[in-house]
Amino acid sequence: MKNNSFYKGRLAFWYLIIIWSLISYTPALSKTALPSLPSSTQQNQISGIITDGTGPLAGVIITIQGHQKTTISDFDGKFTITAAPNDMLIFSFMGYKTLTIPVDGRSVLAIRMQEDATSLQEVKINAGYYSVKESERTGSIAKITAKDIEKQPVTNPLAAMQGRMSGVNITQATGVPGGGFDIQIRGINSIRTEGNSPLYIVDGVPYSSQSLGFSSASSGILAGTTSPLNGINPTDLESIEVLKDADATAIYGSRGANGVVLITTKKGKAGKTKFNLNAYSSFGTLTRTLDLMDTDQYLSLRREAFSNDGITTYPSYAYDFNGKWDQTRYTNWQKELIGETATTNNLQVSLSGGSSGTQYLLSGTMHKETTVFPGDAKYGKGAVHTSLTHRTEDGRFKINFSANYTADKNILPPSDFTYKAAVLAPNAPVLYDANGNLNWENNSWTNPLATLNGRYTATTAALIANTLLSYQILEGLELKTSLSYTDNRVEENRINPSTIYNPAFGIGSERSTLYLNNASSHSWTMEPQLNWLKKIGESEINILAGATFQDQKSSQLAQTGSGFPSNGLIYNLAAASRLNISSNSFSEYKYQAFFGRINFNYKSKYILNATGRRDGSSRFGPGNRFANFAAVGAAWVFSKESFLDTGTFLSFGKLRASYGTSGNDQIGDYQFLDTYDVTGNNYNGVIGLQPSRLFNSDFAWETNKKLEIAIELGFVNDRVFLSTAYYRNRSSNQLVGIPLAGTTGFSSLQANLNATVQNSGLELELRVEPFRSKNFNWSSNFNLSLPKNKLLEFPNLESSPYANRYLIGQSISIQKVYHYTGINPQNGLYTFEDYDSDGQISSPNDQQWIEDTAPNWFGGFANQLSYKNWSMDFLFQFVKQKARNYLYNTSWAGDMVNQPVATGNHWPVDGSNAQTQLYTTGENGEALDAWSYYSNSSATISDASYIRLKSVSLSYTIPTKESAISTARVYLQAQNLLTFTNYKGADPENQSSFFIAPLRQISLGVQLGL
């Protein structure tokens, strides 16, 4: 079948022609439609330069009071504008006091602006369909900017957010390039693990967070499937905002239940053409490794295990102990298999500039990265970002076009070496023989490097394009339309050739296997909007009405082939003697919505904000496709009250609250229908069908009711700013698969479960500026989140299949395990609490001990210091939590696998203080049973709290006066530099025994501007 994409077909050509036509001709049309009245006052050209007393200020907005004419200062702080001799010019710039200067007949002006800490409250915050001043927002919105992002050598935008936002918990699944992240905004709302992803909006375009990967191809190396967010280049981002409460998210309706992540890319700025270059190189290593036994400790353990089992003649397969392997050899397998140094090289160039009417930006990025594994694994990414903004001279018509295209190729081993590095005996044979070939040591072991004969390859491409058109019909009345298109493609394969096996086994290419996956997803979105702003005395009313129309089509063909005539043909699926089609699917998702907002603002002191949305989704049955979601938020800026003196200590104070609903349709397509799958079985030349899903016309939306109350306080001209919020979210009408009896022929029925999950908590944000002077500045940001998750309702839980998984009143992150009570001093075996007192340990009756693995609290502490041309930034991330430790996946002590050094604390040597039961080679059945219970007991869940020096950046700005170079900066950056933890495992963040932890990276870079 022929596939056409945005960037492969003729659609791209016509898209650009239309945009060019709009830019070229609409200014004239707008003037014709709304001609300006000729002025009877003589207009003169005014020019000047704007500084802050130490250097020029670029990007200052200059407007004529009472008129719409506007210009922007260029890179050198210079500006020109046409004005009458008696006009007043208004100069405004974020972080500086707004100035109103009379022209007074002058033609040249010299303007000096002063910093204003309280002006940070005037910063516009992106709330999606509208923007709002920080001081007047009624919702909960967290934000980071390009200044925070560019100080971290990361390839995924979620990595830049870690530790910087309250209520946003992000964990990295693996340190392998291309791996994914998990994000939770104010907890887990849905019982379904796949139903907790937030909505991503990139430059106003909905961006799918659903991976197109095939788990059979990638799960061995990526801890899941490819992350679609790798298609967003962090160096192209201007800001990331996270919408958390109902007031901020309800306008997104069914898609905002789990929060909304707004990603805004960089735009061009007025001024002369600028060329910027940013290049860095990084070196990455493991942050932590397990403290494992050396050869002497390991052989001592094995010797005691054989003795305990009464074995004096060592088995032929005990190569580590019977003399076949060198008992004096020691290999640090963590160093050999996961101890390489990963390198990263990143280069970004950009060209930007423009006039006050038209601004442009074009940037390109090349990124190359290797891994800590042996072999030639590598990851490459290329990204192009373009932005074009234009407005007519009278300011009525505006157009903004942006496009982002990212392509990457990931070549990795088919599986991670982390687990092998932890369990291989320290005296295992060397990897290569004297001739440089893989060493099989007389067929006594499986050489781990044989895996490198296999390969996982993934090629992905992502396009995000958006055009925003706006026209001011009347004063205060604006018509706006957003037209967007996205295209995502994934091609991945994994090969397991026969060469991954020991040649002595005689396995040929008839056992070679190929996994293939080709998937794509593309969508278009159109959002017309009408916005009306009216000032009535000291009040201001803002009304927004709009609609959303979205169509998304996805397809996937995942295949497995095996039995090839030669390994040289392994990439040719037609050469496979056995073919299995794992997935051949096509789905279409249609979404339609109408939304609105009414905002009332009186004296910038009393603010009321109401939002609503009526959603329609093709994922539900005919009677339940539409649902209504709404919210109301209010704020009282009490610091503006006359009875408060804010001129001394209290500079700002605001109370805000919100309540509303949002929904969730993250259930996949066609889930309400009765559907059939192809069996793949041939019966008399006919391929059969089998029913796969039952029809459920009552299938409907999940609903999340959100409540928030917050207070914001600024002291000493906002140099100390405190924000505290309490929230409570209740998610009900859960979309789950209700298990059915096997006699029905179906394992489950997709339906709504009348269960309610509550997330509540406190969020604290503190910003402090201890020092602020001409040469030295220091600011600190601290955030703390204290979440609480609870299952409030679950009708008939005790008689449901979920009885052994959940408990009313407890978190849905709980683990029901055996309660470990110590070691029996008589026989040296692990003991556990017998809950039903029947004299034996069994499941599920005795798996009643509750351990909660949800975080108790988390946050971050960031500091920014600058002294003259030097600047330093660092961020500490901290988490208080419990998690599964290495004991959950390790084998019993005495088996032919290495053990942590702590296993040496054992019975009977350490008596009642022992942590490990008596050693056994596996011949002691009672010891094996005890170990089996132990691996799923409270002993394998322990403290996983940590404090991590997440990022450090040190930079020096080189003076460039009287030089063609406008800016020059060198910098040293580090990621995951230090970790402080008592976690019994390699890393407390990803908590995995099978996948590599996030790497410690140190980068050296240079930034130049011409």
Describe the structure.
The chain is mostly beta strands and 1010 residues long. It is 8% helix and 47% strand. The protein is built from 9 helices and 48 strands. It has a 22-stranded antiparallel beta barrel. A hairpin with a 6-residue loop joins strand 5 and strand 6. The longest helix has 23 residues. The chain is globular, with a radius of gyration of 32 Å. The two termini are 48 Å apart. The relative contact order is 0.12. The N terminus is likely disordered. This is SusC/RagA family TonB-linked outer membrane protein. Keywords: Cell outer membrane, Membrane, TonB box, Transmembrane, Transmembrane beta strand, Transmembrane helix, Transport.
Blueprint (SSEs and pairs):
Layout: H1 11-33, E1 44-51, E2 61-64, E3 70-72, E4 78-83, E5 88-92, E6 99-102, E7 108-112, E8 124-126, E9 131-133, E10 141-145, H2 146-149, H3 157-161, E11 168-172, E12 181-185, E13 199-202, E14 205-207, H4 215-222, E15 237-243, H5 246-249, E16 260-265, E17 271-286, H6 295-308, H7 333-338, E18 342-354, E19 358-370, E20 378-391, E21 397-412, H8 418-423, E22 455-474, E23 477-496, E24 513-536, E25 539-562, E26 578-602, E27 606-617, E28 626-636, E29 650-664, E30 675-683, E31 686-693, E32 702-715, E33 720-732, E34 734-739, E35 748-753, E36 756-772, E37 776-793, E38 814-817, E39 820-823, E40 830-832, E41 849-852, E42 857-867, E43 870-880, E44 882-884, H9 925-934, E45 941-943, E46 946-957, E47 967-981, E48 999-1009
Parallel strand pairs: 1-7, 13-16
Antiparallel strand pairs: 1-4, 2-3, 2-5, 5-6, 8-9, 10-15, 11-12, 13-14, 15-16, 17-18, 17-48, 18-19, 19-20, 20-21, 21-22, 22-23, 23-24, 24-25, 25-26, 26-27, 27-28, 28-29, 29-32, 30-31, 32-33, 33-36, 34-35, 36-37, 37-42, 38-41, 39-40, 42-43, 43-46, 44-45, 46-47, 47-48
Family: Belongs to the TonB-dependent receptor family.
Subcellular location: Cell outer membrane
Protein name: SusC/RagA family TonB-linked outer membrane protein
